[in-house]
Design goal:
single chain; about 600 residues; alpha+beta; Butyryl-CoA Dehydrogenase, subunit A, domain 3; 7-stranded mixed β-sheet; 19 helices; 11 strands
């Protein structure tokens, strides 16, 4: 298994230098979030990731979770690692002070999460889901519910899940059959079966709070009749202690392609006592608090996978000797040259590097937008942040998960035949990461939401704040001759972005299927453009650092050269997506369903 090393230097570049997180935090009232504190926190998190989470990553994959008579046991070392995570106070980092949290910015937690996911994807998912459950209860629970659940969830002694999918319905949640019968005491009896529940049952915490959607009898059909409930695995006594077992049981765990160390469960609710969160029939609206947080978390999975795969591939490429360089021997005293000298290996490594570092920047930017919603910033600032977040969240989730999976594929390929062998660990990254393209709405669902509901649904208004930011950056960068190689393409692609929206809108007026046919290509075009913006920003800062004189010349030169690679070898992919989009949906729909034969 490749040795995971926390990418602290690049995180510092992104958070502190490029996005100026210290000024950002001070402006929003996070006075304790100084550079010294940020460095101390990330360095301690790096130790936990490298020394505790990473060493049991392959063990988790090999052993998986076990289910015996309804009891789920996690792999060796997971329980102890999670206890160290809790004892270090990591679940409390960005949680509210009033419930036992440290009250630090949400964006800092996102950065820490990358380290944990990169070190051990399966293990990191357990607390990741708890953060989403906590955020949902904080946003929609009553004061009594917050006091009942949040202190334990925040400290990590209890954990949470998201229970949406049922055997007969995945994305189409309006088809759910789970019922919530009102009880005389104001609670509800929840009955139904949920599947694919990540971290649905385990031995890491003393209780699990399931966030469940169900339909109250008499409610409307479809999504308009969905309500949301908190359903504890064990009942909670008046003093807050854990009581008797609720009617919640794990029927089985899935045997999966990857993330074997995380228990993906079938959860059966048999007259389980649950408590309404938010208003009746507003459950799906409330659930979006969880889902939007989870979508940023899944984008983080893509970035983390790209980083881990890059680290493994880079170390191997420097060590593995195969063939001679086409331009002459680079290791004349050895039997062959290291494979890192070969252009195609460089192509794969730089693809991984550009995805990991560009994706990290996009994610950090999104996390800062989330900070505005947790602060006392003025309403105009919040509104702009929320608009950008609404646009970029589906792009980040789908684009970064797709590119993260691509990066893991390159990791296997760099290793050649050894990459296909389990003991090297590279194929695990690929298996673990594929689920990220499916979680929290597949790439196709994210694309349809982006193009249909958000872009065309607002007549393009949603892109204006972010598009204006990109335009302002280009205008401000024109004075630097070295930036022409980045600014000119960025301006051209930005212009084309607007033209594509107009073209799809016209096509859709004649044939609504054009939206579905164009959506994924539009999302991928948007993703390449967005990452291009952040690579251009990174290149500009690196050029400024080099011009001013720096002791880290190689680091900043690498930033510029990777940006050049992205603009020359990655961004042009967007042209292919634009061509597919313009070609329309006719070829997709021409074949009748009965004519799909084999």
């Amino acid at each position: 298994m490749p040795e995971y090393k926390a990418p602290l230097r690049d995180m510092k570049f992104v958070m502190q230098e490029l996005l100026d997180c210290e000024t950002h935090y001070q402006k929003l009232g996070y006075e304790d979030a100084s550079i010294d504190m940020i460095d101390a926190i990330t360095e301690e998190a790096a130790k936990l990731a490298e020394q505790v989470f990473a060493p049991i990553n392959q063990i988790g994959d090999e052993q998986g979770c076990t289910w015996t008579d309804g009891v789920v046991t996690t792999p060796d070392g997971f329980k102890d690692a999670y206890q160290q995570y809790v004892q270090g106070g990591w679940p409390t980092l960005s949680s509210p002070v009033e419930f036992g949290g440290q009250g630090l910015p949400s964006s800092l937690s996102v950065a820490i999460s990358e380290l944990m996911i990169g070190a051990n994807h399966s293990l990191a998912m357990y607390p990741g889901l708890s953060h989403g459950a906590s955020a949902t209860i904080e946003a929609h629970g009553t004061d009594e519910q917050k006091q009942r659940y949040l202190p334990k969830l925040v400290e990590g002694s209890w954990m949470g899940t998201m229970c949406l999918t049922e055997p007969h319905c995945g994305t189409d949640l309006g088809m759910l059959r789970s019922k919530a019968e009102p009880n005389e005491d104001g609670s509800y009896s929840i009955t139904g079966t949920k599947i694919f529940i990540s971290a649905g049952d385990h031995d890491l915490s003393e209780n699990i709070i399931h966030i469940v959607i169900a339909r109250i009898p008499g409610s409307p059909n479809g999504t308009k009749g969905i309500s949301l409930f908190a359903v504890p695995k064990f009942s909670i006594n008046g003093d807050g202690s854990v009581g008797d077992r609720n009617g919640v049981h794990c029927g089985s765990i899935e045997h999966k392609m990857g993330i074997n160390g995380n228990a993906t469960c079938v959860i059966n609710f048999d007259n389980a006592k649950g408590y309404l969160l938010g208003e009746v029939n507003r459950g799906l609206n409330c659930m979006f608090t969880f889902m939007n947080a989870a979508r940023i978390g899944v984008a983080n999975e893509g970035v983390s996978a790209a980083e881990a795969a890059f680290q493994g591939a880079l170390a191997y490429a420097k060590d593995r000797l195969q063939m001679r360089s086409l331009s002459g021997p680079k290791n004349p005293d050895g039997p062959a040259d290291p494979i890192i000298v070969h252009p195609d290996v460089r192509r794969m490594l730089l693809t991984q590097k550009s995805i990991a570092e560009g994706g990290r920047t996009l994610l950090a930017y999104l996390a800062q937008l989330v900070d505005y919603g947790h602060s006392d910033a003025d309403e105009a600032t919040k509104q702009i942040a929320e608009t950008k977040l609404a646009l970029l969240t589906p792009i980040a989730k789908a684009f970064l998960s797709e590119l993260g999976f691509e990066a893991t594929s390159h990791g296997v390929q760099v290793f050649g035949g050894h990459g296909f062998i389990k003991e090297w660990g590279m194929e695990q990254f690929m298996r673990d990461t594929k689920i990220s393209c499916i979680y929290e709405g597949t790439t196709g669902i994210q694309a349809l939401d982006l193009l249909g509901r958000k872009v065309l649904g607002t007549r393009g208004e949603i892109i204006k704040p972010f598009s204006a930011e990109v335009g302002q950056f280009c205008a401000d960068s024109m004075a630097m001759p070295e930036m022409g190689q980045f600014v000119q393409p960025l301006m051209s692609y930005s212009k084309e972005w607007g033209e594509l929206i107009e073209a799809i809108g016209k096509k859709a007026m004649a044939n609504p299927d054009e939206v579905g046919g164009a959506s994924v290509d539009f999302l991928m075009f948007s993703g390449y453009l967005t990452l291009g913006y952040f690579w251009a920003k990174s290149a500009k800062l690196a050029l400024e650092k080099l011009a001013a004189g720096t002791e880290e010349k190689s680091f900043y030169e690498a930033k510029v050269k990777t940006a050049q690679f992205y603009f020359q070898r990655m961004l042009p992919r967007a042209k292919g997506h634009a061509a597919c989009l313009i070609n329309g949906v006719d070829s997709m729909m021409a074949l009748e369903s009965e004519d799909f034969i084999f």
